[in-house]
Give the backbone structure.
Amino acid sequence: MTPVGFLETSVIYCDDNLHRLAQFPAESIDLIYLDPPFFSNRHYEVIWGDEAEIRSFEDRWQGGIQVYVDWMRERMIELHRVLKPNGSLYLHCDWHAGHYLKVMMDDIFGYRQFQNEFVWYYSGGGASKRRWARKHDTIFFYTKGKEWTFNVDDVRTEHKWDRGQRRADGSERDYEKGKLPDDVWEHHAVMPWSKERIGYPTQKPEELLRRLIAASSNPKDIVLDPFAGCGTALVAAHQLDRQWIGIDISPTGVNVMKRQLQRRAGADGIKLIGMPVTERQLRDLKPFEFQNWIIQSMHGSHAPRKSGDMGIDGYSFMLHEPIQVKQSDAIGRNVVDNFETAVKRSGKEKGYIVAFSFGKGAYEEAARVKAKDGLQVVLLTVADLMAGRTDLVTPDAGLFSADEPMPEARPPEALPTVEELALSEWGQEVARDLRRAAEEPADYSDSN
Ligand SMILES: C[S@@+](CC[C@H](N)C(=O)[O-])C[C@H]1O[C@@H](n2cnc3c(N)ncnc32)[C@H](O)[C@@H]1O
């Protein structure tokens, strides 16, 4: 992390970018890339689905396109302010909003500062029989001043001519150096089998970002992505030895991009600012967001909803032991009881329930299960987790006093059946997810 004025790099802010940008010093950023969300259909628009992102979505959409443009305008004014006099900005749009945004951009940057309408053409995938298949995104390239970085030799393309062919004036082409780059670039969208793929439909390919960053910045320059998503621009910046700063309103997104930066770019020393850190803040998170926070704090993986592992929200790191997350207090005996069934069904001998607190019955039940079957149900409080304690074990039956005897084990036939589990809170949630997944095909292109 290199401080520039009071600007730190290798930082991801979990915040509304408007609020965060207001705290950045003027003229401190060399290159900005932004890929703001836009309504094409709600499924593509809301990527992480957590509360902060949905609230931001609703702000933008209550009044249609004009509200959206105004929403973008106030952010663009801040972005223009923080850009260095010789800095550049790339605004990635899809066809729904591009034209509206171009007029707004000309207003802020000046018509003459518009350098290119860069077209990223991605063939393949679904096509339409009712109109021309929509196969490109538009990226507007603006510069703040009259001087800017453009490393043309780093982004040359291959000549399409056969070697040895001369220009019309008879002069020779330099085939080794390559062709001067033009404003249409063909590259496939992120493929389902690609290593960089996170799995949401509007993820941009790293190669596209490497190209823009290589052209419009130099090593050690500062690259900012104020709608950082899963961090594609930051990964590309790190790979190219640029400094970077990311902002995203979604805590889920921030965690994903941190992992992508570590995995895809070998980045370390990444600082997250603005993530929920107090128990109060965690209590206020939406259930989905809370669950993400817990699983990620345990470095675990999320349960694939389709698997039908009812009651299992995720799996622990390496050993893949089931985790159940409850955003409530005084968890009782029956939760442990039901979870025991789910753990047994998963074939593991240990599982974790995470909640704000547990009742005495829950501890007793966990001890009973351990004594009877050797099955460990670890009851982890959020406070334990915040203190980094994932090493806790199930209490032994001996911890409970003789004058308060352990409850009798429930006979096996009294354990909840699959049908009962399906009717439970989590069963209903699984059913809802499955219905939603069936209604919303995750296809990037228009395939009518
Ligand atoms: C289209 S995605 C960016 C994808 C990114 N280019 C990539 O390839 O990974 C848009 C992102 O903007 C975030 N976002 C929405 N409203 C925001 C706001 N007001 N401030 C910061 N981020 C916001 C969303 O959470 C989402 O991650």
Remarks:
- Confidence is low (pLDDT under 50) at residues 40-44, 399-421, 440-448.
- Residues 27 and 84 are 4 Å apart (CA to CA).
- The first helix runs from residue 17 to 21.
